[in-house]
């Protein structure tokens, strides 16, 4: 039986695989293309990995490191800081000058406002009949105040002239400051802006003067006296004293 099976098996034909014919050139081309594709894919993955990891070549490192050299960086920062400092200094000077101008204008406006308020108050009292004006010239108000600045005092004097047909009054004022300095009392005659010790006045109905003066830090002003002189008259026509408020 076994012998019979072996004989029959020897008679069976072998399997045959039929494939199309491919030349060796075609095979080489396909292999070359496949290898090139693998190389390109590998290079792309390598570059992607380098970029992800932050790896750069030596040329890139040199280009990046040049602007951030220690000396160059310090010089650049120094120039930028100097430029910013110069601009800030210029802006500060502009602001300071503007503030000084505003402070001067504020003082002038305040001074003018006080003068107008006093004049308005005076004329309101005159019109209402509460203030009686004698014939001739008289001192309506004389005050002395200590300023917020150390050693600075402000004084003001208002004069009026009454009568039916008063003429223009031509004369002058003199101010005497009585102060105490180092346990010694002295009297100082004030001078005007022209360095004159006589303040010229010329008015018909109303006149007001408001000025300031400065004394040494160790001096204390006790009182102030004003004298009114008519033109070409050596003797004072009016005299009044005020103490600091």
Walkthrough of the structure:
By secondary structure, this protein is of the alpha+beta class. The chain has 2 domains: 58-132; 133-242, Immunoglobulin-like. Helix content is 44%, strand content 29%. It has 4 helices and 8 strands, in the order ααααββββββββ. The protein has helices at residues 2-11, 24-53, 58-65, 70-128, and strands spanning 136-146, 152-162, 169-181, 184-189, 199-203, 206-214, 219-230, 238-242. Strands 3, 4, 5, 7 and 8 form a 5-stranded antiparallel sheet that branches. The longest helix has 59 residues, at 70-128. It is rod-shaped and about 145 Å long. The N and C termini lie far apart (152 Å).
Shape: rod-shaped
Known CATH architecture of the largest domain: Sandwich
- Highest CATH level, the class of the largest domain: Mainly Beta
Q: Would you tell me the overall average pLDDT? A: 78
CATH topology of the largest domain: Immunoglobulin-like
Low-confidence stretches: 2-7
Using the CA coordinates, give the radius of gyration: 53 Å
Which sequence of SSEs, written as H and E, runs from N to C?
HHHHEEEEEEEE
- Percent strand equals 25-35%
Biggest β-sheet strands, sense, barrel: 5 strands, antiparallel
| DSSP strand count | 8
| Helical residue percent band | 40-55%
Structural category is alpha+beta
- Counting DSSP H or I runs of 4 or more residues, the number of helices is 4
**Structurally, how many domains make up the residues?**
2
What is the straight-line distance between the termini? Answer: 152 Å
């Amino acid at each position: 039986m076994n012998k019979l099976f072996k004989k029959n098996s020897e008679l069976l034909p072998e399997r045959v695989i039929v494939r199309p014919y491919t030349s060796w050139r075609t095979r080489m081309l396909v292999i070359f293309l496949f290898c090139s594709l693998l190389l390109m894919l590998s290079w792309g993955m390598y570059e992607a990995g380098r970029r992800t990891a932050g790896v750069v070549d030596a040329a890139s490192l040199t280009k990046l490191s040049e602007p951030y050299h220690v000396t160059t960086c310090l010089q650049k920062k120094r120039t930028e800081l100097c430029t910013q400092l110069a601009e800030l200094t210029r802006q500060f000077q502009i602001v300071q000058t503007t503030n000084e101008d505003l402070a001067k204008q504020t003082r002038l406006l305040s001074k003018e406002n006080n003068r107008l308020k006093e004049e308005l108050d005076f004329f309101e009292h005159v019109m209402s009949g509460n203030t009686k004006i004698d014939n001739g010239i008289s001192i309506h108000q004389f005050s002395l105040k200590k300023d917020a600045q150390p050693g600075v005092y402000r004084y003001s004097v208002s004069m009026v002239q009454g009568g039916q047909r008063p003429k223009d009054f031509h004369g002058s004022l003199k101010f005497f400051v009585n102060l105490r300095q180092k346990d010694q009392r002295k009297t100082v005659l004030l001078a005007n802006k022209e360095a004159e010790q006589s303040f010229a006045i010329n008015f018909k109905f109303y006149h007001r003067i408001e000025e300031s003066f400065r004394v040494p830090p160790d001096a204390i002003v006790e009182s102030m006296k004003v004298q009114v002189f008519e033109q070409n008259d050596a003797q004072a026509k009016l005299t009044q004293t005020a103490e600091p408020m």
